[in-house]
Amino acid sequence: MLSLLPWKQKLAVDVGTATCHISVQDAGLLVREPMVIAFETERHRPIAYGSEAKQMLDREVSDVEVLRPIESGVVADFDATVTLLRYFLHQALGHRPLFAPTVVTAEPTEATQVERRALVNALKTAGAGEVIAVPRALAAAVGAGLPMDQPECRLVVDMGAGATDIGIVSMGMIAAGKTLRFGGDDLDEAIRRYVKRNYRISIGRARAEDVKIMAGALSPEMVAEQMRLSDLDEIGTSGSDHRKLEGIADLLRQSLMPTASETLWILDSLPEKQLDEIIQVESMLTGGCAQLRGITGLLSDELALTMTAAPDPMSCTILGLEAILNDLEALSLDGRRFTR
Ligand SMILES: Nc1ncnc2c1ncn2[C@@H]1O[C@H](COP(=O)(O)OP(=O)(O)OP(=O)(O)O)[C@@H](O)[C@H]1O
Ligand SMILES: [Mg+2]
Q1: pLDDT tens-digit profile of 262-312?
Q2: pLDDT score of 257
Q3: CA dihedral 204, 187, 229, 298 (to 10 degrees)
Q4: Among 133, 142, 175, 333, which residue's CB has the most CB atoms within a 10 Å radius?
């Protein structure tokens, strides 16, 4: 199965809800693009991919449909996913390869058969040959530098745009794990609704994400930049309203509580010895949401352990997939265990 032809190219592909990363073995990271595609309406023809298509999001351009084909970490629009991946694979390889490349990818830690098949089939239809899927929590743990050869349990939480993968890592595998359909997109949506309900201002998803990144924090004193309603102006209704935008810290805190509870639920189901092991060392937070100010403090308090953000958290999954690609012999046949 894993006996690879030496002349076949090998790729690591992280198909995220927000971003697609592609690394080519011996060449490194060649694609880091938003998972966004724009079609002429009626889907006659794709007209923009990646960052170019992202600029069209939230702008009502007539006769153009802009979509994000991955939702909550899973393939939501198969055909659009294939079209986008085909374009990105071509970008990475620069030509049509003689042999379909072998791809290592990351799937939800708790994937259904249907979700797993959709991702693998999308990659194959887009031009991949053999596709090896590893659990996202495992890829993130490898990318964050957690040891893969030790029996002591470690907690990793990967919080991206559409999903949160929680994993207990021991001996290079996920001993217990869960995928929540919750991520940064849901925080954006919570902000959008909050601004509408409290200030009667309609903002798009992209502007809500700006608010989260610029002014988002889990406690008011951590806010880097105090936003005013006039800063939210998109349609010209609040341009002269200089009141402060308040309450975002409480909103984010409330929105993240279910994730903390789910993680606690997994921790509480572990034998006491494993829980002790986890508490004694740093737990790792990866994914873009790890950059939210105060999130590690909130999770540390709620879970009664030490949660640390991985360096370059948005790259952990692709870095983990790259490391696995470079050491495929250390990956079990089913892709669920990586020991090196
Ligand atoms: N500085 C920041 N502060 C808060 N959130 C951020 C920051 N930078 C990025 N994010 C958020 O991180 C998320 C993207 O993270 P990431 O790239 O890990 O997602 P993804 O891998 O594409 O999605 P998923 O793994 O859920 O399918 C977005 O919701 C984005 O708004
Ligand atoms: Mg991700």
Answers
A1: 999 999 999 999 999 999 999 999 999 999 999 999 999 999 999 999 999
A2: 98
A3: -170
A4: 142
Residue 210 CB partners (closer than 8 Å, separation 6+): none
Q: Which residues of the chain have pLDDT under 50?
A: 1-4
The residues with which 244 forms a beta bridge, in sequence order, are 228
Q: Give me the amino acid identity at 182.
A: F
Q: How far lies 336's CA from each of 9, 139, 159, 331, 332, in Å?
A: 22, 10, 20, 7, 6
What spacing in Å lies between the alpha carbon of 86 and ligand 2's midpoint?
Answer: 19
Ligand 1 atom nearest residue 213's Cα: 3
Give distance in angstroms: CA of 290 to centre of ligand 2.
11
Q: What are phi and psi of 67, to 5 degrees?
A: -140, 160
User: Which of 252, 314, 315, 316 has most ligand 1 atoms within 8 Å of CB, for mutation?
Assistant: 314
Q: Is 125 in the pocket of ligand 1 (CB under 6 A)?
A: no
**Which domains, and CATH codes, for the chain?**
10-139+317-330 (3.30.420.40), 147-182+257-313 (3.30.420.40), 184-251 (3.90.640)
**pLDDT given at position 11:** 97
pLDDT attached to residue 2: 46
Cβ of 73 below 6 Å from ligand 1: yes
Global pTM?
0.95
